[in-house]
Each structure stands twice: as C-alpha cells, then as structure tokens.
Design a protein that fits this description.
alpha/beta, Aspartate Aminotransferase, domain 1, Aspartate Aminotransferase, domain 2, 7-stranded mixed beta sheet, 3-stranded antiparallel beta sheet, 14 helices, 38% helix
C-alpha cells in the first residue's frame, strides 16, 4: 500500500483478544459475568505512594518543559544503582540507561536499531504475543524454539547447544527470552543462563533479555539476570518495566540497559517516536524506587496468596509456577485441534476467560494461560474452580 486510495477500506485487524472480548459483550445480560483472566493485568490500583503531591520533590520542577531524551537524570541514576545492586549488572551510570515507552518500547528500540532487516531471532517459546508485531515492524523474523515447557520435565538435562542448534541459520542474529516466563511461569536457573550466554558468545548473537517479572519469583533463591554473568553484558540488551513491579502498566514506562554503545544506538529512535516518555510518570517511578521494598512487598504478598488460591482449587494439569503472573494450563486432552470459536464458547459457558495457547507459539495449541493477578485471592479461588470445566 502506497497511495491514499489503498487505505480507504482498511479496517483494524482483530486480535484474538478483541474477538474474545467482542463475544463476551455479545452474550452479556442475564448471565453471570465471566472472570476475565486472559490479559496479564493487576487488581490493584496505582500504589498511593506514587501519587502524593509534587511540591516536596526537587526533581519535579518545570515538568512543562522538555527533559532529557534519555529520561530524567535522577531516575536513571537511581535505576543504575538498582541494576547494580539487585541485578548485578555492570552499569557504569545514568548514561547507560534509556527510559522507554514501557518494556514494549524498549524491545521496539532493540529490534529496530540492533537487528538487521530480514535477520532471525531465536525466540524461546512459548513467548509474549506482542513480540510478533514488534518483530514485524522491525522487519525481522521470529524463529520459535520450544523451550520453557520442555525444561520443566528434567531441568538438569537441558543441552542448549543441541536444543538451539537445529534452528540456527546464516540469518540468525539474536535470541530473545523472558523469565520468569510469560506465559508458563517457568524460572531459568543460573545453569540455564550460563549455557545460553555461552551459545550466544559462540555464535556472536545479541541476547534480548526481557525481565518484566523480575520481582515476582516464588522459590526462595536469587533471581539471576543473564547480563550479570561473566562476559555476557556486552552482548545483552536488558529490558525492565515500571508496569509489573509497581502496578503501573497505564503509565507506560520501561528502561533498557547495555554497553554504552547500545544506549547510544537506541536513543535516536526513542527521540523519533516521542522525544521523551512522560516526565510526570518518571517522577512517579522515582518515588517507586524510593519505596521499592514496601510497594513490591505488598504486591508480592497479595499475588502469592492469589497463586495459592489457584493451586488449591485447580484440578486440570498445569506447569509448576515459579514466577510471573501466570499458570499455564495443559488442556490438550480437551482443547487440542478444536476451533477458536469453540474454545471461546467453552470459556464463556464455564464462566472464566483465559488466553488460548496458540497465541504464545505455533506449537502450543491445547494449552491456555491463566492470569492469577487480575482478581483478589478470594475471587481467584472461584475462577480456578470454573477453569476445571474448560
């Protein structure tokens, strides 16, 4: 399409999520509303600690003006300290951080500036569905590597070289993963990450590390960022977000870090797409970092209770959840091979809406993602009971 007339009859292309929500609206009235758990959302409002008046904040002056295109210096300074202390990343200072339009914006920057058009991204599946339009916009291709469900069977037996090797071509430029994983809830251990880092070094690949759920790890063990491993930081683009850790998805802030050259490469695209993310929201993120333990501790306690409610009431098979906001339901004995419309119908008859697995990878028909953070724990118990009838 290149002429105005080509666009005259163009309509929005409906996503699976759009189709589900349209069917829910069409059937509304007279029936009990279904529990809507197909989106990775929270039942919390924005934490009150983020919303107090601005008067006391020395860095919140003249927000009517343009700020730094990398993001507010005070925010980047505090994030650099957090990334060194919590994540073990060798971030030298504020200049090695780019504030982005959510974690999504950080991934957009990485794909557009670091990857050549037509190159291939080894994508550890199942994976976050919005990665598809991100890759398409950058002209790169996702190569799905079945991974997270497979390593749960025998985590110690994973051989990354033999697992990834068959998917490598001369076009392979990078690999992408997020952990704890959306949609499976699987957590990668240090041994997995070390193998991935060695593979990337051997084949000279970028590592795009999506760490949106870093603060929601349930086993009593440290969370490991792959960029903290020896030699990995210079080839790793680490993406973080304000959305999950602070119940602030609507504020659309994230950040990207890597070697100095990475941030220098990303910045011009960030400028071109909006100059600088919302400055008021950046002040709120500063407040979040000041009160990090309190806010995240409150969210963790509530979400952990929600997960327990699900585990106590769910009778269908699912992968063990070690983090993120999700339980990945194995419904293959009843869902695999049936049409999308039938799946939607079954969800609405059961009274609980989940995300069908094919949204997360071509090989995951018959699975479904259940978000346990979208409702308070008491309601989550009932949602889990309903899910048994899917």
């Amino acid at each position: 399409m290149s002429k105005p007339s080509d666009f005259k009859d163009l309509a929005f292309r409906q996503t699976l999520w759009n189709r589900i929500e349209a069917e829910v609206r069409a059937r509304g009235g007279g029936t009990e509303a279904p529990y809507m758990l197909h989106v990775g959302d929270t039942w919390f409002d924005v934490p009150e600690e983020l919303n107090r008046p601005l008067d006391a904040e020395p860095w919140a002056k003249m927000l009517s003006r343009y700020g730094s295109t990398q993001g507010e210096v005070e925010l980047r300074r505090r994030l650099a300290q957090k990334l060194r202390e919590k994540n073990g990343l060798p971030v030298g200072g504020p200049d090695q951080i780019q504030i982005s339009y959510g974690g999504t914006g950080g991934l957009f920057l990485a794909m557009h500036r670091l990857l050549q058009k037509d190159s291939e991204v080894l994508t550890l599946a199942p994976f976050w569905p919005i990665l598809r339009p991100l890759a398409s916009s950058a002209g790169v291709r996702l190569v799905e590597v079945p991974f997270f469900d497979r390593i749960t069977a025998d985590p110690g037996a994973v051989d990354i070289e033999s697992l990834f090797g068959p998917y490598m071509t001369s076009w392979t430029s990078s690999l992408y993963f997020n952990h704890p994983n959306n949609p499976t809830g699987v957590l990668l251990r240090r041994g997995h990450l070390e193998q991935i880092a060695r593979f990337a070094a051997k084949h000279d690949l970028w590592i795009i590390s999506d760490e949106a759920y870093e603060d929601f790890v349930w086993p009593d063990e440290p969370y490991v960022s792959i960029g903290s491993l020896p030699g990995a930081f210079d080839r790793t683009v680490s993406v973080f977000t304000f959305s999950k850790s602070y119940a602030a998805a609507g504020m659309r802030l994230g950040c990207v870090t890597g070697q100095p050259g990475v941030v220098a490469a990303l910045n011009p695209v960030n400028v071109a797409t909006g100059y600088e993310p919302n400055r008021l929201a950046q002040v709120q993120w500063i407040r979040g970092l000041e009160r990090r333990k309190v806010i995240i501790g409150r969210l963790r306690a509530a979400y952990r209770d929600g997960l327990r409610s699900v585990e106590e009431n769910l009778r269908v098979p699912y992968l063990p959840c070690e983090g993120s906001f999700y339980v990945f339901l194995d419904l293959r004995d009843r869902w695999e091979g049936i049409r999308e419309a039938e799946k939607i119908d079954r969800m609405l008859r059961a009274g609980v809406v989940v995300a069908p697995g094919e949204a997360f990878g071509a090989m995951y028909d018959g699975w479904a993602r259940f978000c346990y953070t979208a409702l308070p724990p008491a309601e989550m118990s009932q949602a889990a009971i309903r899910a048994n009838d899917l």
